[in-house]
Design a protein that fits this description.
Organism: Staphylococcus muscae
Oligomer: single chain
Pfam family, one: CBS
Radius of gyration: 29 Å
Mean pLDDT: 83
Largest sheet: 6 strands, antiparallel
Protein name: Multiple CBS domains-containing cytosolic protein
Number of strands: 20
Distance between the termini: 61 Å
CATH architecture of the largest domain: 3-Layer(aba) Sandwich
Strand order of the largest sheet: 15-16-18-19-20-17
Keywords: CBS domain
CATH class of the largest domain: Alpha Beta
Low-confidence stretches: 64-68, 309-315
InterPro entries: CBS_dom, CBS_dom_sf, Diverse_CBS-Domain, DRTGG, HotDog_dom_sf, Ser_kin/Pase_Hpr-like_N_sf, WH-like_DNA-bd_sf
Number of helices: 15
CATH topology of the largest domain: Udp-n-acetylmuramoylalanyl-d-glutamate--2,6- Diaminopimelate Ligase, Chain: A, domain 1
């Protein structure tokens, strides 16, 4: 067992929550600090450890393979600039969905469960109901909660996160982060297609050309990774390397070295480029210390590229979701203010106001001028608040337009009274 493997094994045997440092690992296992550092970094990639602000590196519960691409509650807290006010020990748990708590407390139980995050304002009854169902809680508007709720969260190890952002903003920040994770998941990496070492044909560098010929005849393969006694990659040998070679020659004298290799996190697209550019049919896959983990073939890489090319990728931005609430009637633009578009006070969120104006401009320019727009500046003045379930009428006036630019004034009205005005400068883009 290599020193690297010894450190990984040592980390695996530590209790969850135990702090880890390079210096302590190096001293305890009598290894260099450089070796300890590389092993701890590898352990982080394997999901064994994590670095926490103001705490340091700690042993965490390893995520199951199917949850590796899900967000943890700790990651959510960073995304929304939030902080834990309860249940901090559950920050490494993952969530699979989130729900907005703009509903009666009796209805909450139908929308939350384990691995759910409920987004809610200053409603203690809803927070308690969510925790009882095994759901974490995100409190918007910067509100705190009661000591009873915090104690309940600590006991159940369910995080309570507080954020100063409004409900709509945090929901869309989380939605975007989850979508980004999904896109990353769809990007194939070597780990998704690697043939593990247990199923890989490889040779020891102490063997001879005669052994290569026998192995090739038995397996039907013509290319083999070559390793040392510690199963670290030292070269690659192919049928071309042993043509006209003496049967007694050592592999180490005729193999190609150093062998080009890739890591588990290398993208399949990168591997395809490398294989085509270098004319390689087989790529060894190695770890941090060049230990052989498996191989990938050119055929498998090209098949994977073909499959992923047929996969649709869909997702929504904040503006995409706002656009769903925009309705055009008799050439006029209307927006109904639903709970999803509100802040913690039950009024129209300012971030939504900006998105409504942006989408109005884009809709007008696409329809009337047949062009796309890029908004360069937007100055908005808020006049009145708009309550939930009210309707907004959006009016616009083109103040000036050139070949490549436009100045537009937008007025938002509710109950025939202005609630906001904006002046927009935008660039016109041909399709």
């Amino acid at each position: 067992m290599t020193k690297h493997e010894q450190i990984i094994k040592h980390i695996e045997n530590l209790t969850v929550g135990q702090k880890i440092s390079v210096r302590k690992i190096a001293k305890y296992l009598d290894v260099s600090e450089g070796t300890a550092y590389r092993a701890i970094k590898d352990a982080g990639q394997r999901g064994l450890v994590a670095t926490i602000d103001r705490v340091g590196t700690v042993r965490i519960e390893r995520k199951a393979r199917q949850h590796m691409d899900n967000l943890t509650f700790g990651e959510i807290a960073k995304i929304i600039d939030g902080h834990f006010i309860g249940g901090r020990s559950g920050q490494f748990k993952t969530l699979t969905k989130f729900a907005i708590g703009a509903m009666e407390v009796n209805n909450v139980v139908h929308y939350v469960s384990k691995n759910t995050l409920l987004i809610v304002g200053n409603r203690v009854d809803v927070q308690k109901a969510a925790l009882e169902k095994g759901s974490a809680v995100l409190i918007t508007g910067g509100f705190d909660t009661t000591s009873e709720i915090k104690r309940m969260a600590d006991e159940k190890e369910l995080p309570i996160i507080s954020s100063n952002y409004d409900t709509f903003m945090v929901a869309n920040m989380i939605n975007r982060a989850m979508y980004n994770k999904m896109i990353k998941k769809e990007i194939l990496v070597v780990e998704d297609i690697v043939i593990p070492i247990e199923e890989t044909s490889y040779l020891m560098e102490t063997l001879t050309v005669h052994d290569v010929r026998n192995k090739s005849s038995e397996s039907g393969h013509s290319r083999f990774p070559v390793v040392d006694t510690q199963v670290r990659l030292t070269g690659l040998i192919t049928s071309k390397d042993i043509i006209n070679r003496d049967a007694g020659e050592m592999i180490s004298q005729v193999m190609t070295k150093p062998a080009i290799s890739v890591q588990l996190h290398t993208t399949v697209a990168s591997c395809a480029h490398l294989m085509i550019w270098e004319g390689i049919e087989l790529l060894p896959v190695t770890g941090v210390d060049r230990e052989l983990l498996g191989v990938i073939s050119r055929e498998d890489v090209l098949k994977a590229m073909q499959v992923v090319g047929r996969q649709p990728q869909v997702g929504e931005t904040i503006n995409d979701q706002v656009a769903k609430h925009i309705e055009i009637r008799n050439h006029q633009i209307f927006v109904e203010i639903t709970p999803q578009l509100s802040n913690q006070f039950g009024t129209l969120s300012k971030s939504v106001s900006v998105a409504i104006i942006e989408e109005t401009i884009r809709s007008v320019m696409r329809k009337n001028k047949k062009v796309e727009v890029m908004i360069e500046s937007l100055n908005i003045f808020y006049i009145k608040t708009v309550q939930i379930e009210n309707e907004i009428e959006v009016q616009y006036q083109i103040l000036d337009m050139g070949r490549n630019f436009a100045k537009v004034e937008v007025t938002m009205e509710s109950n025939q009274a202005p609630v906001a005005k904006a002046l927009i400068m935008c660039q016109l883009l041909d399709h």
